[in-house]
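**User:**
Make up any protein.

**Assistant:**
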Amino acid sequence: MDIRIPLGFEMAGVHCRIKRDPQKPDLTLIVSDRPCAAAGVYTRNLVFAAPVALDSSRTPSDQIRVVVVNSGNANACTGERGLRDAQEMARLAAESVGAKAHQALVLSTGIIGEFLPMDKIEQGISAAAVKLGRSEACLLSAARGMLTTDTVHKVAGQTVTIGGRDVSILGMAKGAAMMGPNMATMLAVVMTDAPLDPDTAQELLSTATDKTFNCMSVDGHMSTNDTVLFLANGAAGGDLLAGSDLEQFRKAFEEVCEDLARSIPADGEGCTHLVTLDVEGCADRESARRLARTVANSVLVKTAIAGADPNWGRIVSAAGYAGVPFDPSRVSLLLNGTLLYENGAPVAFDQKAVSQSIRDGKDVHIVLRFGEGDASIRFWTTDLTTEYVRLNADYHT
């Protein structure tokens, strides 16, 4: 794996018996050898989990050293006990590496409404602390410890030279369903050895989230636990990034976030297609986002893609109820590079060929053009299959 762990960070993933399968890690520990500038973005669901309450109260910060993650139990809708458990989880993680309790953040994912098995969590933190390292094996075990119904781990990274120094960015994420944009729709931790202050880290993360993690949807369902954390420990050395150096870092950082964001719908539960939707020619970016989200979440659009049906009518009509004003006579639509609809009217195309292009590949590209302005957005979604229904019907039972 050609991804470098940023200087000063170590990590590990272990099985602590939250999940039944002993081959699946369910607790991850990520540690910096020095305090980090830390930022976070969180779910906007009014029903939010205890770790969201804890982390949002501690970020932005210039003191964070530890992130502990458990999978298999979301610690959501668990009341005051859930918050106490999240606080204790943070304390145990910090204590295991010689940090202070307030220097730890917590992520949890899994089934909602069950209390954390704190005896198992404590044992898992102790086990992970002695396995911390910087090897590829440590990275992969940590990435896998975050997963629930994911079929693959999700890791992305870049190393760039800024001001004569190599700076590394590494991100890991989980997510395959319960995905609806308005924050991250996932869990993720992105870390770097670049020198940043907390306010800059927060601005970088918020801007990148708007362009990436908020531009994907599997099923439109906003989770209770959605969190993306960003840690910058400055171990690469040098002054705080500013000016052109900061903009060079921003570009690489946003590319890492985009790689992670795209990997989630690509692993969407039961999906057979990853759909990239480019909405162009809108009056403003928020209008473009609203149009894209509406099309992406349309059950009829998603099932048409599953059936390799180039049904442009479903796409155009979904845009029409997005609540965004536009002139229907100026709308055009392309699917996998073929023009299906132009200036408000259908055009002749080879339906069998377009259908075959959907059927033969996992990636589907839709371009929806409006003649209202210059704003655009790229959005990712999936098709909808009977396997998605089966997986989610069976998830808890």
Remarks:
- The first strand starts at residue 9 and ends at 14.
- The domain at 274-394 is CATH 3.10.20.340 (Ubiquitin-like (UB roll)).
- Residues 159 and 249 are 10 Å apart (CA to CA).
- The chain has eleven helices and 14 strands.
